[in-house]
Description:
Elements: H1 2-23, H2 27-44, H3 46-68, H4 71-76, E1 80-81, E2 88-89, H5 92-123, H6 126-137, H7 144-162, H8 172-195, H9 199-207, H10 212-223, H11 225-240, H12 244-249, H13 267-278, H14 284-313
Antiparallel strand pairs: 1-2
Amino acid sequence: MALNSKIDNHDKVSIKGMITEKKNGPNINRAMEKIMPVLLFLIAAVSILTTIAIVYTLLTETIEFFKRVPILEFFTGTVLKPLSQNPEFGVLPLINGTIISSVIAMLVAGPIGIMTAIFLSEYASDRVRRMLKPMLELLAGIPTIVYGFFAFTFVTPLIREFFPSVEATNILSPGLVMGVMIIPMIASLSEDAMTSVPNAMREGALALGATKLEVTFRVVIPAALSGIIASFVLGISRAIGETMIVTIASGSSKNFTFDITQSMQTMTAYIVEVSGGEAPAGSTIYYSLYAVAMTLFVFTLIMNLFARYVSRKFREEY
Length: 318
């Protein structure tokens, strides 16, 4: 009893001494305690302030563009001739090229990515998974300009060997290569979603007589559906915002067509072309750059909001 009393008294003295030392400590410590929350808040607010600044810049310049070009003409026009004597600023050719290239990319990346995720999650051993997943994610580390030259110098000539009618610059080649580029994103996110499904669900289905394939497609995939859909939506957003591949391999023809063998231009490629120095500051074509950028921004924002909605709507909590 006496020993415990001494220990308790010692603890009280130690705590009291720490409090006294804290109160009577250097002023710099108390100042840091007050400054750090403010500093951390400012650092956390950098991304929000940056987003606000981007939106403000795009919005002000886009409004200036629509003072010169009717908004209805911009969103319904099928002709884009910004450098002609009678310029026309219809954005539909750019939207058309962006959507077609993204669809081609997802037709490649979707099936391959989901099947890769199924193999890594359900069939591969730990040793194989540790070896294959880093190799797969290496694709995400390759610069997109390398993908662009690969599409232009290898994929396009290969396609023209079998289909001579394909133009030297076309939307098919960059779409295929973008699909290869997006595979790691879809595979990795989908694999993470499938891996998070509890093993008890798999074991229960197997105990009822289901095969491995039935467990995968009737239990695991429905349980991980929110993560899989979110990975697809994010993959589409990545394809819509891709720049260098389409700039190099798809050409600069502003055709409003659905023929994937022809040259088309995407919104990102148009932004690169206009910002390359052909448009004098203050001209209509200069402001069209911001109008197209704002359209692209809205596209990607809608896709990201949709991904978040899907994730919350179909999320399963275990």
